[in-house]
Fold this sequence. Notes:
- Chain A has a single domain, classed as Roll (SH3 type barrels).
- Chain A has helices at about 10, 80-85, 100-105, and strands at about 5, 15-20, 25-35, 40-45, 55-60, 65, 70-75, 90.
- With about 110 residues, the first copy, chain A, is an alpha+beta fold.
- A seven-stranded mixed sheet of chain A has the order 6-7-2-3-4-5-8, with no helix packed on it.
- The mean pLDDT of chain A is about 90.
- The longest helix of chain A has 10 residues, at about 100-105.
- Chains A and B meet through strand 1, helix 1, strand 3 and strand 4 of A and strand 1, helix 1, strand 3 and strand 4 of B.
Amino acid sequence: MASDVISTDRVEEANVYSAAGDKLGSIDDLMIDKVSGQVCYTALEFGGFLGIGTDRYPIPWSMLKYDVAVDGYVVPLDKTQLEGAPRYSSDAVPDYDDIYRSSVDKYYGL
Amino acid sequence: MASDVISTDRVEEANVYSAAGDKLGSIDDLMIDKVSGQVCYTALEFGGFLGIGTDRYPIPWSMLKYDVAVDGYVVPLDKTQLEGAPRYSSDAVPDYDDIYRSSVDKYYGL
């Protein structure tokens, strides 16, 4: 493992940017395959005001690219695409079962 | 991804058992490769009394096997082996750099 190995708590503070450099939000949670230990999705905190009323947007991990220049992650998405994306309230986290994951993957063309 | 996909917060509550079925402790933190999203080590909370004075023991993720029967993880270790293992205080988490990781891997024969 050549990359930085850090606590998931620190990854969960990371900012997420569009390719154009706009800050979209931050990683609120990491969804992990509990057997393999591989992150599968992040729950992106996007929208809202001062943390109030922000929903969580599941993003397939494969879409995130770590960018050392911003010490954060870049996704090939913009705000308009996110506004139409699957999301849930922070107090109503769904079960990330096969059906749910397939629906998220389908939205993102994966 | 066929396995359960869950929040890292839930993985961090999981118990860790020896092969003989003794509860060794619980997962306190997950150390992740921030580029690949793969968990590399867990910080096992072991020892102490009622959560007071417990150190953290880095365990290579490859040593943990999820066991549905106990809804937790099993490691090929016992308490005696852990008592001699690398550890750190919960308020003095080291940088998991190449040198540190190599020292942990070496202790566990990896």
